[in-house]
Amino acid sequence: MDEATAKQIASDARPEHDVPAGYAIRGAERRIIEISESAVDVTPLVRDVRVWIVRFQAGIAWAELAVDEATRTVVRMQRSRAP
Amino acid sequence: MNGEFERFVWKQIERKLAASGVARSQGALARFVSIARQALPGERDGATPAPVGAGETQTLTRFALYFRRADMTVELNANTGEPMSWICPKFADGNAPLTPPEAMRVAEAAAKLPPNAVLLQQGYEDIGGRPVFVAHWEHREDGVLVERDYIRVLVSGHSGRVFAIQRRWHDVDLNPSER
């Protein structure tokens, strides 16, 4: 998956992850992240995932969507504290 | 027997200190001194001390006294037992400062760098009013950053010794596993 595709997938996923409309894409980078696969009440299983981290920003507020290169889905969303 | 022996040693220490004009209870001393009984040659652990000679009531006992010199905090991975970090502020005391290249060599030797460690930062910083050489490596696989993995080594600008290491590192595994 190239950077442009990752940005497009992240943009399309904005509504379901509540990324505000005023946030603009500020960049993307490849990264390897850990994703927990287990329910809360069992021993946690973790796997590494190769993703594109797509960053949205408005002023100092930001949100990042992690797009799994293999499945082309958003596997994690992180955001700054509410401004 | 061990408890009796330890009480005897503590009493001896207290007597010695009192004779030199220092009064300390065992509780206060225990913060700085510990006693460990040791086996004599040919004696199994925990065995009753052997009489010194036939018909003697005295026994021979070997013990070690340990004196606390510094506090060290160590973090271990609960799954693997691998050290994750340690810090010993005492190691920062001294007077043998290093040049940045020398400090970097000391840091590299302590870091036990994996092949995919990429240097992110090196140099002296003022930390808490003291000069500290900071070396920081990140984990990259084929150039891709492995999030949250890093090795950070702190070398004292006073002693020239490593006094803290933080290490979070794992082998990338795309299959689910316990960590």
Structure in words:
Chain A has about 80 residues and is mainly beta. Chain A has one helix and four strands; from the N terminus they run αββββ. Chain A has one helix at about 5-10; strands at about 25-35, 45-60, 60-70, 75-80. The longest helix of chain A has 10 residues, at about 5-10. Chain B is of the alpha+beta class. Chain B contains three helices and eight strands. Chain B has helices spanning about 1-20, 25-30, 100-110, and strands at about 35-40, 60-65, 75, 85, 115-125, 130-140, 145-155, 160-170. Chain B has a six-stranded antiparallel β-sheet with strand order 3-4-8-7-6-5, with helices on one face. In chain B, strands 1-2 form a two-stranded antiparallel ribbon. In chain B, about 10% of the residues are buried. The model of chain B has no long low-confidence stretch (mean pLDDT about 90). At the A-B interface, strand 1 and strand 2 of A face strand 7 of B.
Structure characteristics:
heterodimer; A: 83 residues; mainly beta; four-stranded antiparallel sheet; 48% strand; B: 179 residues; alpha+beta; six-stranded antiparallel sheet; two-stranded antiparallel ribbon; 3 helices; 19% helix; 36% strand; elongated
Provide a quick synopsis of the model.
The complex is a heterodimer of chains A (83) and B (179). Chain A has 83 residues and is mostly beta strands. Chain A has one helix and four strands.
Tell me the β content of chain B: 35-45%
Number of helical runs of chain B?
3
The computed structural class of chain A is mainly beta
Instruction: Determine the oligomeric state from the structure.
Output: heterodimer
Arrangement of strands in the largest sheet of chain A: 1-2-3-4
Provide the gyration radius of chain A in Å.
13 Å
In order across it, which strands form the biggest sheet of chain B? 3-4-8-7-6-5
- Biggest chain pair interface: A-B, 15 and 14 residues
Residue windows where pLDDT falls under 50 for at least 5 positions of chain A: none
Task: Characterize the main sheet of chain A.
Answer: 4 strands, antiparallel
- Gross geometry of chain B: elongated
- Approximately what portion of the residues of chain A adopt beta-strand conformation? over 45%
Pattern of helices and strands of chain A: HEEEE
In whole angstroms, how far apart are the ends of chain B? 44 Å
- Give the integer mean of the pLDDT values of chain A: 92
Span of the ends, CA to CA of chain A: 33 Å
Q: How would you spell out the order of helices and strands of chain B? A: HHEEEEHEEEE
Number of strands of chain B: 8
Strand segment tally of chain A: 4
